[in-house]
Design brief:
The complex is a heterodimer of chains A (226) and B (430).
Chain A: E1 2-13, E2 16-28, E3 33-37, H1 44-51, E4 59-64, E5 67-68, H2 74-84, E6 85-88, H3 100-108, H4 116-129, H5 145-157, E7 163-167, H6 175-192, E8 195-200, H7 203-208, E9 211-216, E10 219-225
Parallel strand pairs in A: 3-8, 3-9, 6-7, 7-8
Antiparallel strand pairs in A: 1-2, 1-4, 4-5, 9-10
Helix pairs in contact in A: 3-4, 3-5, 4-5, 5-6
Chain B: H1 2-13, H2 15-55, E1 58-61, H3 80-92, E2 95-109, E3 118-127, H4 129-135, E4 142-145, E5 155-158, H5 159-165, E6 172-178, E7 184-195, H6 200-205, E8 206-210, H7 211-218, E9 226-231, H8 237-251, E10 269-272, H9 273-276, H10 278-316, H11 318-327, H12 331-366, E11 369-370, H13 372-375, E12 387-388, H14 394-413, H15 415-421, H16 424-429
Parallel strand pairs in B: 3-8, 5-7
Antiparallel strand pairs in B: 1-9, 1-10, 2-3, 2-6, 2-9, 4-7, 5-8, 6-7, 11-12
Classes of the chains: A alpha/beta (226), B alpha+beta (430).
């Protein structure tokens, strides 16, 4: 499903070059529930960004569904993101002026050939699935942190992408809510057969993952399959 | 759909900032509409007053006069034969025409009538009283005394001139000027009327006398320096001028001079009022252009305000931009979002500015602003004596509205440019 081969990423910070990833190789299968774990600066978010086509590799290749995405220009990467990837952010990144329904609908409005009616139906369905039935017309400020993250999950899943990437999805939540969110994602992973990839240093997330990839100083140092 | 909704809601979300920016735009639009209407009104009224009191629609001169007209030359005349041909041509067209001889003269006033003795340089108009009244409004603007009658030996003077020298109806002044051939003529004349017109040039320095009396005193031998003509019955002035020029050309066949044993000059020349008063027209346009430069700078200031607002909006909403990009929204869509926001703020400011501007213009059209304290003492170039009235100028209003909306949108386009060049990950990280 996803094949990462000898991927390196170097950032330039001022005059210094920082090697965030050093020749990482990894294969991820469809329907995996995988966590990238490691301390700050280990390269887990960088790897997630590269898989999600929101950053470009310095060297190496990434293929997604058999398509090499690492060398694509911004426009083509845009299309890949539209079709194949959903994002869940640590700080939810919801649009404050839009309701839960409108926030989720944002992801569908780029999909061609889908009517307004269908958008509404799909949004209602996914919001109910993440436990937000009856809260569709609330704005983010009227929702708790856990509920906002549920909206974010619904937004990531509504277009039914094969891959969902979640960057520290529980970091801003209390442990109880975090657990609920993880359980929800696990459930969605199973029902939709969507591949979930997390970056985390939350032990609870690591516990819930089926595959745990450990990173340190830009290199994979271990992998646990459960 | 959501993008536009999002843009409008963001305007409300940052309502204080949006309001301040909208006020800046609104003030820009308000002042633009207000000043444009004022300049347009002044320009129009000034043009009307030039035509009503100085030139008519067109003037006809003897060849050579036009180029020297600023000096009021006394050597290029329309002779009696020319006059009869011209009047025949005028009778073919639907016009009123007034023959005139205009010269520079010195007006002397002595202690017999005035508190102090002195002199003033004036512009003397020798006119046919009845025909002058058909072409110009001065005869209908007599403040005290009366207008001239044929064969009159009195004079009518402008009201400001009378005020300056302390003249009243019934007072006698001496007038000195060069007669035809270069001799000096001095004569005493009683002031029979004082004219208070809407044209400062007439009020300040015009003196009128009967043409037949002037003919006698200045040895004009029936000649005049010009005809002032107004078109009657509508039609475009430029077309009417062309038609009249053709009539005149037809009345003056290209025959060898003196073919009929008469002293013949070449065909007279016809000029529009804009050509005759080209300096005044140019001055008005220059003033108008200069004011528009100030207004342009006002818009630039408003544009910087919007740009700053949008820059702050972009910086504060990096996460939202990053999220939208991660969903697959292209740069153009996100730029469009900010453009709509800028446009919405511009629209609020423009609507408010246009509404307020219209109220101010309506007031200024009705009542105007009294600048008589300034215009009495200084020559501002406009032929307006006191109250400066605005005039509705739809073209100017549309320019202000379109300009404000375009600037609001265009300047909102740029702040998002830099951030959108970055990788999505960099936007989210920053």
């Amino acid at each position: 499903m996803i094949s990462i081969s000898a991927v390196s990423k170097t950032y330039t910070v001022g005059t210094q070059k920082v090697r965030a990833l050093r020749g990482v190789s990894l294969d991820i299968n469809s329907g995996d529930f995988l966590a990238l774990a490691g301390p700050s600066g280990s390269g887990k978010t960088t790897l997630l960004n590269l898989i999600g086509c929101i950053d470009s590799v310095t060297s190496g290749t990434i293929t997604l569904d058999g398509e090499t995405v690492s060398g694509l220009d911004q426009m083509k990467r845009n299309l890949v993101r539209q079709r194949k990837i959903g994002f869940i952010f640590q700080s939810y990144n919801l649009i404050p002026v839009l309701t839960a329904r409108e926030n989720v609908a944002l992801a569908l409005q780029l999909v061609k050939g889908i009517s307004e009616k269908e958008i509404n139906e799909r949004v209602s369905r996914i919001l109910a699935e993440v436990g937000l039935a009856g809260m569709e017309d609330r704005k983010p400020s009227q929702l708790s942190g856990g509920q906002q993250q549920r909206v974010s999950i619904a937004r990531a899943l509504v277009k039914e992408p094969p891959v969902v990437l979640a960057d520290e999805p529980t970091a801003n939540l209390d442990s109880k809510t975090g657990k609920e969110i993880l359980a929800l994602m696990r459930e969605l992973n199973e029902t939709h057969n969507t591949t979930f990839i997390f970056s985390t240093h939350d032990p609870m997330v690591m516990e819930h993952s089926r595959i745990l990839v450990k990173l340190h100083d830009g290199e994979i140092t271990g992998m646990d399959r459960r | 759909m959501n993008m536009a909704r999002m843009a409008f809601r963001n305007v409300w979300r940052y309502r204080r900032r949006s309001l301040i920016t909208a006020i800046a735009i609104g003030l820009g639009v308000l002042f633009t509409i207000m000043i444009d209407a004022m300049l347009f009104g002044a320009e129009r009224e000034s043009a009307q007053n030039i035509r009503d009191y100085e030139t008519g629609d067109v003037k006809v001169f003897a060849p050579g006069y036009f180029a020297e007209r600023q000096f009021l030359p006394f050597e290029f005349f329309l002779e009696t034969h020319d006059r009869s041909l011209l009047e025949e041509a005028f009778s073919q067209s639907s016009v009123d025409a007034a023959p005139r001889t205009v010269a520079s003269a010195e007006l002397y006033f002595s202690e017999d009538f005035f508190k102090v003795a002195g002199s003033a340089t004036v512009k003397l108009h020798a006119i046919e009283p009845v025909k002058e009244a058909a072409v110009f409004r001065t005869p209908h603007a007599i403040e005290s005394g009366r207008w001239l009658v044929p064969g009159d030996t009195g004079i009518v003077v402008g009201s400001w001139l009378a005020e300056d020298i302390g003249a009243k109806v019934g007072y006698t002044v001496s007038v000195e000027l060069k007669g035809r051939g270069g001799f000096y003529q001095t004569f005493d004349a009683e002031i029979v009327g004082i004219a208070l017109t809407d044209n400062p040039y007439v009020n300040r320095s015009a003196v009128y006398m009967d043409l037949s009396y002037a003919d006698e005193l200045l040895a004009l031998d029936g000649a005049v320096t010009e005809y002032a003509v107004v078109f009657r019955g509508g039609g475009k002035p430029a077309e009417r001028k062309g038609q009249l020029a053709a009539e005149i050309a037809e009345a003056f066949p290209r025959e060898a001079s003196g073919s009929a044993g008469l002293a013949r000059s070449a065909a007279p020349e016809i000029y529009s009022w804009e050509e005759v008063e080209s300096d005044a027209v140019l001055l008005t346009k220059t003033k108008s252009g200069g004011s528009k430069v100030y207004l342009f700078f006002m818009f630039i200031i408003a544009a910087v305000g919007i740009s700053n607002t949008m820059l702050m909006a972009v910086m504060e909403r990096k996460n939202e931009i990053g999220m939208l990009r991660s969903l697959g929204y292209g740069k153009a869509s996100i730029r469009w979002l900010f453009l709509v926001e800028g446009f919405a703020i511009g629209l609020i400011g423009t609507v408010a500015g246009t509404a307020l501007g219209s109220i101010v213009v309506a007031f200024m059209v009705q009542y105007g602003l009294d600048f008589s304290f300034m215009l009495r003492e200084m020559d501002a170039g406009y032929r307006i004596t006191g109250v400066m009235r605005s005039a509705w100028h739809p073209e100017g209003m549309i320019t202000a509205i379109v300009g404000a909306l375009a600037i609001s949108s265009v300047v909102a386009w740029f702040p998002s440019g830099r951030i959108l060049k970055s990788e999505v990950a960099d936007i989210l990280r920053s």
